[in-house]
Amino acid sequence: MGIELLSPAQMAEADRLAITRGPFDGPALMQNAGSAVAREILSRYPQAQTVHVLAGPGNNGGDGFVAARLLAEAGVDVRVHCEGHPRPGSDAEGALAEMRLPLLGFDAFAPQASDVIVDALFGAGLVREIGAPHAPVIERANASGAPIVAVDLPSGLSGETGLVLGIAIRADLTVTFFRLKPGHLLYPGRDLCGETILVDIGIPADVLADIGSRTFRSVPELWRTHIPWPDSGSHKYARGHVGVFSGGPSATGAARLAAISAARAGAGAVTVLSPRQAVQVNAMHLTSVMLKRTDTPEEAVMFAADRKMTSALIGPGFGVGERCTEFVLALARLAAGRPFGLVLDADAITSFENAPHRLFEALAAIGSETGRGCAVLTPHEGEFRRLFPDLADAAGLSKLERARRAAERSHAVVVLKGPDTVIAAADGRAAINTNATPFLATAGSGDVLAGIVAGLLAQGMPAFEAAAAGVWLHAEAGARFGPGLIAEDLPGLLPAVLAGLRDSQGSSS
Ligand SMILES: NC(=O)C1=CN([C@@H]2O[C@H](COP(=O)(O)OP(=O)(O)OC[C@H]3O[C@@H](n4cnc5c(N)ncnc54)[C@H](OP(=O)(O)O)[C@@H]3O)[C@@H](O)[C@H]2O)[C@@H](O)CC1
Ligand SMILES: Nc1ncnc2c1ncn2[C@@H]1O[C@H](COP(=O)(O)OP(=O)(O)O)[C@@H](O)[C@H]1O
Ligand SMILES: [K+]
Fold it and tell me: Which parts of the sequence belong to the YjeF C-terminal domain (predicted)?
């Protein structure tokens, strides 16, 4: 299954290019799409009394007409509900002409819980809020208790944003074509789709080169070749040295959690840089992770240079304020002159709430050329709002687009966390992560993620790939553990997840 995600506009372009190049013309693609829907219904719901097909005015409705015809030919009792006529000359009009079933109005739509509903009202062509006569039909479908199979997208769901335009179908199964759309993966869309299956309807993959999608599902295929594995020539500093900044004596746990996570992600050496007052408490809890007293940004920079530090993480438990901003700015200057990965999380983000431009200017100076450093920001929604209030409040802007614009503005890779974490780079690439479990919503879980990313960056992994891989590894570890997960469990789960990745090297998942 391809990892590119296409916006509805890009999908329309894929359809157009496919029709121009062949081997399938528009009606044939529609035949393939509708027959995939019919096939799924016949295999999943063999006992259904009646299948109600809700058909809209565009080609999504056309897929519905094809499915209706094939189901009727298979002996199913099919009722097609439609208002208005497809556009003259459209593929949908052709599919309607071939169907030869009576057209019922929406008023006659009265499904029983033992029936099946096919939602072919709107797909990629949804452009505005749903109103009458479609909204009441969607409401009735959702309330019926009958399983709903959505064609391409649940009607009312924006394939571009994952947001609902007024009201949307809540599907049990969504059958979509060629490539997933962001709306299948971003919430609330992901919930509305139910199970999503992707069907090959004969669109040749080479149309992707013309479309140039820069949005991906974050699966190992996207970043696996960049995962750093040690070889016989490796020594500990060749595997990177991570510095993790600790907070004061009552806020040291976050840094240690991140530090051990960086080590588990493969960094050869990890040091906790601690203020004087917290050195003793840190020393009591560290074994393989080293400890260095560090009270000023100058000391931090000197240590980083002396000890060949290749990445740093600051923010978790560090404390919000001017002291934090000074450390961040000093580290950003360091990263501007050498290959050095800087991860900013939690307090390092919040500390710039009143002057985000100071941070963005410092990160811009890092640049993204080979041999220079890079920065990764890992905000949850609340932290994101502090740095990018206008993007957070922009109505109708998808999580994908918010992260992408934030990356462009901040000159950093932005990891916008949540159940559908988005990873975006300043160059326009973006990925949506899909393997998270809600059990990850536990204190300290974000510190582990930031540590993993710092650990991968320290080993020279490029920032976008390191961030995407870090999010996936973190989520996979959480998903494998399940109920009862606490953040302390996560680092110890990484070896098995990494081993699985290494063993599956070369296969795609
Ligand atoms: N040959 C092909 O190209 C293939 C296409 N395929 C299928 O086609 C689907 C895309 O088809 P599509 O582009 O016709 O869009 P579709 O989702 O049917 O809706 C457009 C219609 O809805 C209307 N409309 C929009 N919003 C509305 C609202 N809120 N409330 C009311 N009306 C609204 C809009 O009206 P208008 O804006 O023009 O006034 C227009 O009439 C795609 O999802 C896939 O299923 C596959 O078969 C593969 C081959
Ligand atoms: N409902 C959820 N489903 C899946 N993952 C989640 C959910 N809520 C949070 N997460 C993940 O858990 C982590 C929490 O990080 P964060 O909010 O920084 O917490 P903390 O500061 O307590 O460590 C992030 O990686 C986030 O993506
Ligand atoms: K639909």
Answer: 219-501
pLDDT in tens, 132-172: 999 999 999 999 999 999 999 999 999 999 999 999 999 99
At residue 421's C-alpha, the angle toward residues 312 and 324, to 5°, is: 30
Q: Is 459 in the pocket of ligand 1 (CB under 6 A)?
A: no
3-class SS of residue 235? coil
Which residues have CB atoms below 5 A from the ion given as ligand 3? 119, 123, 150-151, 155
The pTM of this model reads 0.97
**Is 15 close to ligand 1, i.e. is its CB under 6 Å away?**
yes
Q: Whose CA is nearest to atom 14 of ligand 2?
A: 446
DSSP 8-state class, residue 442 = S
Closest CA to 235 of 272, 271, 269: 269
- In angstroms, the CA 194 to CA 34 distance is 19
Strands 430-432 and 422-424: antiparallel
Question: Quick one: DSSP state of residue 58?
Answer: S
Helices and strands of the chain, counted as H and E runs: 21, 17
Q: Given its phi and psi angles, is residue 342 left (phi above 0), alpha (psi -120 to 50 degrees) or beta?
A: beta
165, 57, 61: which is closest to 118 by C-alpha? 61
Say which residue the tokens 């050329």 belong to.
Answer: 369
pLDDT above 90 as % of the chain: 94
Give me ligand 3 centre to Cα 120, in Å. Answer: 4
pLDDT over 80 at 1, yes or no = no
Task: Indicate whether 506 pLDDT > 60.
Answer: no
Closest atom, ligand 1, to C-alpha of 166: 29
| DSSP SS3 for 30 | helix
All domains of the chain in start order, with CATH: 8-213 (3.40.50.10260), 236-502 (3.40.1190.20)
pLDDT class of 49 with cuts at 50, 70, 90: confident
Residue 369: pLDDT band (50, 70, 90) is low
Residue where the block lists tokens 């040690």: 230
Q: Write out the binding residues for K(+).
A: 60, 119, 155
Residue 93's Cβ-side half-sphere holds a number of Cα atoms within 13 Å equal to 7
At residue 355, the pLDDT reads: 97
Packing angle, helices 91-99 and 26-44, rounded to 10: 50
In angstroms, the CA 357 to CA 359 distance is 5
CA dist., res. 313 & res. 81, Å (int): 58
Give me the pLDDT at residue 509, please: 40
Cα gap 101→52, rounded to integer Å: 12
CA 140 to chain centre: 31
Whether ligand 1 lies within 6 angstroms of the CB of 122 is answered as yes
